Structures are given as C-alpha cells and as structure tokens.
C-alpha cells in the first residue's frame, strides 16, 4: 500500500520570494524522504493553489493525503481557511481521504534556527555585543496565538540571559519599531531582532524596516528552507499518516 501523499500547505504571498522560499523548504523535505510524493500548495496569492495540487494527486492515483499547514500559530488561517479548502477537496473527490496534521507551530527547536539566522545577520553587520532581543512575528487578532509567541520569546531570552519582548507585524502591539524604541528608552543600544517567519513577504519586510528605523543593530532573515523546519514537517506528516491507517 502506497504511503499517503504529503501536501505542505502555506498561506502564500504577493512577494515571489515567499513562494520560492516555500518551494526550497519543500525541496528540503523531499531530500529527507525521496520515497514520498510531496507537494507544495498555497491558500492564496501564490501558485499552485491547493485544489489544483489535490486534482493532480488524485489524477496520479493517490487517494490518501496528509496536509501539513505551514502555519506557526493557531489563528484564523488554521481554524477557518484550512478546514474550508479540505472540505472542498473531499466534496469534489469521492473516496479521497485527507487528514490535516497539526500546524507547524512554534517548536522550541525553531529557536536554534533563529539563532543561526541571527548570527549570520550579526556577522554581516559586524555586531559582537547585544543587550536586548526582539522576537518578531506576524501577529493575530487571536490573543492566544500572540501569547504563544510571547512564551517562545521568554524561552529565547532565558536561553541567552537577555531581556526579550515579542513584537507583531499586524493586529497586535507592539510593532517591532515600538519594541526597539522601548528598549532604547531604557538605555539599551545593541538590540537585535529575530524574525519568526517562514518566508519573506510584506509583513516581515515591514517588520524589518520598522526595526532598523528604530535603531536595531541587526535583523535576522526568516527561518526559510532549514533542515530543522523540514524535519518538523515530516514529524507532523508521520502522525497524520498514522491517523489514516484503518483501525
């Protein structure tokens, strides 16, 4: 019996760098599991869209799919958009079984990815000293989603023994610039920003711009096509594939 196909489902962005980064990440996943059928798909803005990918998989003979939402928090897209497109797919294809895994989420291992990306930015900016950190995320109108980012920020700060605050690119305060200025008002001058985003796009670009305008000494790149992120996708898939096994 063939293993279920894996669809890594991202939100999508008008920025073409975003889709390119997601495709590079999915290529990392394929390199780890060349035996699986693995596809990238997008909810909006980018192509291929989810329904087109499902149609292609069904045409190729796949009747089981595990969808791994490439979302970092349980906000609107996870609670509304993803279930909606799954329901549409199963309604269109009789006999198709689709299991949605847990979202990618905020794994503590992602802090290692953030550190790696931030070290590269600090080296490029020739910065050797830090006295505060800002963890920048997309932000949500869902307070629980924002609280999950704030918890990860506290873990990150405790690891580095530095004060840290979570900042958001939309829907919730503080913005990255506000967070940097607040630290500067305390007399801190070496403030770096870690970008808790999977890929480039309008929100991370704006968050970076505001941070640098406010005086941040370095801003990391998004996590992107990192092996640890790829391994997390496969971990979500593995649990989802088990859920499809008949009892």
Write a concise keyword list for the protein shown above.
single chain; about 250 residues; alpha/beta; 4-stranded parallel sheet; 8 helices; about 15% strand
In short:
The protein has 247 residues and is of the alpha/beta class. 48% of the residues lie in helices and 16% in strands. Helix 6 runs parallel beside helix 7.
Give a description of the structure:
Helices cover 48% and strands 16% of the residues. The chain is built from 8 helices and 8 strands; from the N terminus they run E-H-E-H-E-H-E-H-E-H-E-H-E-H-E-H. The strands form 2 sheets. Strands 2-1-3-4 form a 4-stranded parallel beta sheet, sandwiched between helices. Helix 6 packs parallel to helix 7. The protein is elongated.
Query: Helix content range of the residues, please?
Result: 40-55%
Our count of helices gives 8
Supply the helix-strand structural class: alpha/beta
In total, how many beta strands? 8
Secondary-structure element order, as H and E? EHEHEHEHEHEHEHEH
The average pLDDT value, as a whole number, equals 95
From the N-terminal CA to the C-terminal CA, the straight-line distance is 15 Å
Largest sheet: 4 strands, parallel
CA gyration radius, whole angstroms: 19 Å
Shape: elongated
Give the neighbour order of strands across the main sheet: 2-1-3-4
């Amino acid at each position: 019996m063939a293993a279920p196909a894996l669809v890594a489902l991202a939100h999508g962005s008008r920025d073409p760098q975003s889709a390119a980064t997601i495709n590079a990440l999915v290529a990392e996943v394929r390199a780890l599991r060349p035996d699986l059928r693995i596809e990238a798909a997008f909810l909006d803005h980018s192509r291929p869209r989810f329904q087109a990918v499902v149609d292609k998989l069904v045409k190729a003979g796949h009747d089981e799919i595990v969808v791994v939402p490439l979302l970092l928090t349980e906000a609107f897209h996870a609670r509304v958009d993803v279930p909606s497109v799954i329901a549409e797919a199963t309604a269109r294809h009789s006999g198709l079984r689709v299991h949605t895994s847990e979202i990618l989420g905020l794994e503590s291992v992602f802090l290692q990815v953030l550190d790696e990306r931030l070290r590269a930015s600090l080296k490029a900016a020739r910065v050797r000293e830090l006295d505060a950190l800002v963890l920048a995320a997309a932000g949500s109108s869902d307070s629980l989603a924002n609280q999950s980012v704030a918890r990860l920020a506290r873990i990150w700060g405790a690891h580095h023994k530095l004060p840290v605050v979570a900042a958001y690119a939309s829907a919730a305060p503080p913005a990255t610039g506000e967070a940097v200025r607040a630290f500067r008002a305390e007399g801190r001058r070496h403030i770096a920003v870690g970008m808790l985003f999977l890929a480039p796009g309008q929100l991370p670009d704006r968050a970076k711009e505001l941070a640098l305008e406010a005086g941040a000494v370095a801003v990391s790149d998004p996590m992107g096509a990192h092996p640890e992120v790829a391994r997390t996708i496969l971990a979500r898939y593995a649990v989802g594939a088990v859920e499809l096994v008949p009892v």
